[in-house]
Amino acid sequence: MLFESNIIQFHVIVALSMELISDHLGITQSADFFRADNPEGVEARNEVVALAFEDMISWMQEGGQVGIFDATNSNKKRRNMLMKLAEGRCKLIFLETICNDVNIIERNVRLKIQQSPDYAEEPDFEAGLQDFKNRLANYEKAIEEGSYIKMIDMVSGHGGQIQVNNISGYLPGRIVFFLVNTHLTPRPILLTRHGESQDNVRGRIGGDTALSEAGELYRKKLANFVGKRLKSERAASIWTSTLQRTILTASPIVGFPKIQWRALDEINAGVCDGMTYEEIKKNMPEEYESRKKDKLRYRYPRGESYLDVIQRLEPVIIELERQRAPVVVISHQAVLRALYAYFADRPLNEIPHIEVPLHTIIEIQMGVTGVQEKRYKLMD
Ligand SMILES: O=P(O)(O)OC[C@H]1O[C@@](CO)(OP(=O)(O)O)[C@@H](O)[C@@H]1O
Q: Which chain positions lie within coiled-coil regions (predicted)?
């Protein structure tokens, strides 16, 4: 996953999902459907591939920059077909993940049967398991030409290998950098704002005040929650901004290292820092209106915009992706909106309006089958 931002846009198209195929072609699938020697299956799959590819291209024509065409694409014919479809329209990089660890494959296949919509209708777990294993056996060895990135045994967390062929340019380079740092080890990320601050009580934005009475109570409840939730975790860490309201909120949490990030500081409100929204409306009506019109792009005079915040969060996101142990991030409203949007895959325009209330923990569970979310409201 990457941010859908002004620099990089990201789009996921699940080309060979059972749902999409069934919707378009009205066929029920099994492992046979995926066999290379089943002409009906091959034809139906190619039809869906072309449809999904065209969908991605039309999105790119509207300004999208990076699309993920998610399918196995593991044989010569399919790759040639994709290269033809892409010719003169977009640059193709084949990304292949190879896993030789039978235990990981077994674990992931079991999770897939439990959680994937492909098997939602399959009442017999063992039958689903066999079907998926047959499906895997039908994937052929991919060709080695053109631009490709191969990630070999990188999921297990014990080294692995990355092979890069014919990759050049800024964006492809960033993609390699991102992939080197990412993995699928299941772990939670807990996001929370600091406890209520004295400025929150007065309705003043920015600043660096200590906690209110309610904020003091929240930090105790949070420490209690984290202590219980991460009881069996040895390597978790607590990340805060450099502002005292987050550092104070983290202080009662014991047993885990604490790391301060300037990149987690709240949006810089520039000349408006310390003012209430009412004061801005009254004294700087033009600024107030411009922000209201386009909160995402509006930049406070001598301060930041949401787009600026999103940009400065890139190293935090890469580090979060890299971690194998749980992380508790204690930060601020604007920053958490952006972080949450990244994990929850929310569109750019929605970011400044996402609800991130005080005294609430958002738990993001990272794992093999994507991201799951839970919210815990510890206080009103
Ligand atoms: O973008 P908006 O909705 O103004 O929200 C950001 C604001 O939230 C506040 C609170 O009003 O953040 P926080 O208390 O989480 O540090 C302000 O400091 C900050 O300017």
A: none
